[in-house]
Write a structure and sequence with these properties.
With about 400 residues, the protein is α+β, with helices and mostly antiparallel strands. The chain is about 25% helix and about 30% strand. The protein is built from nine helices and 16 strands. The strands form four sheets. The protein has a seven-stranded mixed β-sheet with strand order 1-13-15-16-11-10-14, with no helix packed on it. Strands 3-2-8-7-6 form a five-stranded antiparallel β-sheet, with helices on both faces. α1 crosses α4, α3 crosses α4 and α4 packs across α5. The protein is elongated and about 85 Å long. About 40% of the residues are buried.
């Protein structure tokens, strides 16, 4: 009979149950992710759908970057500006229906100037029916495909509308995608000024308060409406680490700037990368059925690096699971189990375990002996009748 076996191991780090203190913030929602490891460092109301204000423009930019990559748009493509797009107030590029604007200028207008009109113009160009509403439905459908399950769009730019919501977690997913999938366009997010046609001298500066502070910030997007409060989707690089974060629901631009800088400092100072298991490290042995030897080593298929509290040790538990005993023959490198690593305060990590060596079939006599022993045990119970 083959059973799923579990072995609780204590070979990894250990051992003081002193989890890092959670970051305290006045933000309604906050989500912080370490880019290299994918670990979530902070999650406060991360899956609650909330009004995202202009941070939802990141989804329009994602759709534009996808269109650039598949050839539906080019940076020098010239697009018209509809009366609807030009009618938007708030933060704008001061476009009017007589304008014809390049895709690159519209992208810069969205990122740096947070132009509601620029976002709508780009949306209408990509909309399946030529309307912003049609594009908003397309945004929602694409968000679901990308795993952003708490995002519903009513427009392209975050203008207040009933039911237009995103979660902080979804915004983090989106930010990580923009960073990872579109490095050729990501540099736009670090631009601090864009003086389009000299039309908006008072609205030519990027609102991201972290740019230029020397803390490695290079994106992504602010947001503000009365309903949403002040928010920021940000990312920063220091050394070989990148941290991406989302905060929303703050009371002022000054508070947003302060909280954003604090959260970057916290994420880089309170955590450090550590290799918790090396590729090829033999974790344990598994029992082998009808093999020329009775056990085979189980080794990690890949190294695992995790972000852990920089100073305090934290409780770590590891567990091996496999369906065993394993049946011979076994080939070195064959996937034979899984290592689950659990660290207090973080999502568990799963690592494939592979066989360290070949194990051939046992000879005829050992196999007959095993079969006879199994029959005896099934019929009569008790021990092996061939045991000496």
């Amino acid at each position: 009979m083959f059973l799923r076996l579990r072995l609780i191991l204590g070979f990894v780090l250990c051992l003081l149950a002193l989890p890092v203190a959670a970051f305290e913030t006045d933000a309604t929602a906050a989500y912080v992710i370490d880019h290299n490891t994918g670990q979530v460092l902070l999650n406060i109301n991360g899956d609650v759908p909330l009004p995202p204000a202009s941070m939802s423009k990141l989804m329009t930019l994602n759709m534009a970057f996808e269109a650039l990559e598949d050839g539906r748009l080019a940076l020098d493509t010239i697009l018209p500006v509809s009366a609807h797009a030009a009618s938007y107030g708030g933060s704008t590029m001061f476009l009017d229906p007589r304008d014809r604007v390049s895709v690159e200028d519209l992208i810069m207008g969205i990122i740096v100037l947070s132009g509601n009109d620029a976002t709508a113009a780009l949306a209408e160009a990509l909309s399946p029916d030529g309307t912003e509403a049609g594009f908003a439905q397309l945004m929602t459908d694409r968000a679901r495909q990308l795993g952003m399950m708490q995002s519903t769009f009513r427009n392209s730019n975050g203008w207040p509308a009933p039911g237009h919501v995103m979660s902080a977690h979804d915004l983090a997913i989106l930010a990580e995608r923009l960073i990872t999938e579109f490095p050729q366009y990501y540099a736009y997010f670090a631009e601090t000024e864009f003086a389009f046609d000299g039309r908006a001298p008072d609205n030519r500066f990027n609102r991201n308060p972290l740019l230029g502070l020397g803390i490695g910030a290079d994106g992504l997007k602010t947001g503000h409406t009365q309903e949403a409060g002040y928010g920021l989707v940000g990312s920063a690089v220091q050394g070989n680490r990148r941290v991406t974060f989302v905060i929303s629901g703050l009371n002022s631009a000054a508070e947003r700037a302060s909280e954003a800088e604090r959260i970057v400092n916290w994420a880089f100072r309170q955590f450090a990368e550590r290799e918790v298991i090396a590729e090829g490290f033999e974790v344990t042995e598994a029992e082998v059925f009808l093999g020329e030897v009775g056990t085979v080593g189980m080794a990690a298929a890949e190294s695992v690096t995790m972000l852990l509290p920089a100073i305090l040790d934290t409780e770590m538990e590891s567990e091996v699971t496999y369906i065993g005993p394993l049946e011979a023959p076994i080939v070195a490198g064959q996937e034979i189990g899984e290592l689950v690593i659990r660290v207090e305060g973080f999502e568990e990590r799963r690592v494939t375990l592979i066989a360290t060596n070949d194990v051939g079939m046992a000879g005829l006599m050992p196999r007959l002996r095993t079969a006879a022993g199994q029959v005896w045990q099934m019929v009569f119970g008790g021990g092996d009748p061939l045991a000496g």
